[in-house]
Design brief:
The protein is mostly helical and 541 residues long. The chain has a four-stranded antiparallel sheet. It starts with a helix and ends in a 57-residue tail after the last helix. 42% of the residues are buried.
Amino acid sequence: MATEDKNRATAAAILPLVGGAANVSTIAHCMTRLRLGLHDRSLVDDEALKALPAVMGVVEDDTYQIVLGPGTVARVTPEFERLVEEGREAAPAPAAAPAGSAASSGSAGSADELAAQGAAIRAARKARNATPFKLFLRRIANIFVPLIPALIGCGIIAGLNGLLINLEWLPSVTPALAAMASGFMALIAVFVGYNTAKEFGGTPILGGAVAAIIVFPGVANVDAFGQTLSPGQGGVLGALGAAVLAVYVEKWCRRWVPEALDVLVTPTLTVLVSGLVTIFGLMYVAGEVSSAIGTFADWLLSNGGAGAGFVLGGLFLPLVMLGLHQALIPIHTTLIEQQGYTVLLPILAMAGAGQVGAAVAVYFRLPRNESIRRTIKSALPAGLLGVGEPLIYGVSLPLGRPFITACVGGAFGGGFVGLFNQLGDSVGSTAIGPSGWALFPLLDGNHSLGSTIAIYAGGLLVGYVAGFVATYFFGFGKDLLAEFNVSQEPVPSPVTATGGTHPAPQDGGPADSPDGPRAPGGSDGPGGREPGSPDKTPVRV
């Protein structure tokens, strides 16, 4: 099957399971997830979506997110958008939910009860996360996430260029590679301004125009607060503030400027007022804040070292669950803009290593649970490449305690990398987005590339081992093992292969199961499934 046909087939398989084209209000994607705004959440068939071969998992937040993995999501999304557009043209009326239909394809009984519990938990979490601060952080993420592909591409080119320069190879090519790697970073403030105005409801091009003032070479002729400004001063933080100000000025103009003059007056006043405030205020203030962020990050790892790395690596997974990790995106971008790399990302990436180690331990601790073991085997390759959602939402988080021990693994890996930072070996990433093994092409530091790679690889190894050990020995209590170390497969019929029938067991007698007594109702012991119910692990509440 051609790649285009495969991507379209994936999109075509997803669309009816999210309620069809009429149920989709918005479509977007990030590095790994197809993010959908939905009119009616009850029309989504979660279990059928998870069963699709291309789907690694689903996450419900402010949007419904389908995890497809890096690369795949960027190819499936355009096909999905085309199918939605075609579906809207063919049937513009929104589809109504059939009477008595269920959102889940699970059978009656325990499967439906668990689905209802999961829906209630998701709704409660969504309500808790809908605070003004977290909604603001999501907006910040929406500004920076679209820039990640360019950051990755330019970062890898920068790493390749540095390698060629160190080896003294292709001296006629390296200047061209330097221009490719640096061009985007030189103008990143413009893209931030454009996306900021778009996110906050203004005219994107006006946000970009105001932010462009920050990187214009001519600002070197301007004095503010007794200092001469420098191009790029304030960086992405200045661009963010300038564009937000431009949005508010523009909205004010739309309310008070007569319509006949709007096309001339509104853009002029927006750029003029926002530009003057940016030049004579925001650039200086944002520059001081940016410098403080860089200074603090260096001080933290130079003095805190292993302790700081331990805390950062251990807390990153909970930050992701709470949505607070989005606050780090502007910090990463500021560090990359200042130093050429962010020293925080390699430490935070150790959380994924702890997650991988924990998943491997779960695999060995639950030898009879075929369902979880299959999930782990299919999700491990993505986990090694830094895509952690399948392991988080399919393995560690539903089990409960293994999620905590995964954080322990991330803490030890982060402590390892932080220790070397304290000893003077900075390990950084030239872009944000990838982690795990996918981060190797983006590594940079203040010493040789070989040393930087060795430290990062050592941190991953420590995270794997610590996550495995913590989970294997402390991730399971007796109750958890009793509940989950059982077969999740449907129990075979009592009719034997030769056609004979065993007599039904008496009350209290052994059932026809190689695993011992059957639980009441025909399930395979605690946590088992009735035949025909979905092959999904129950969410541990």
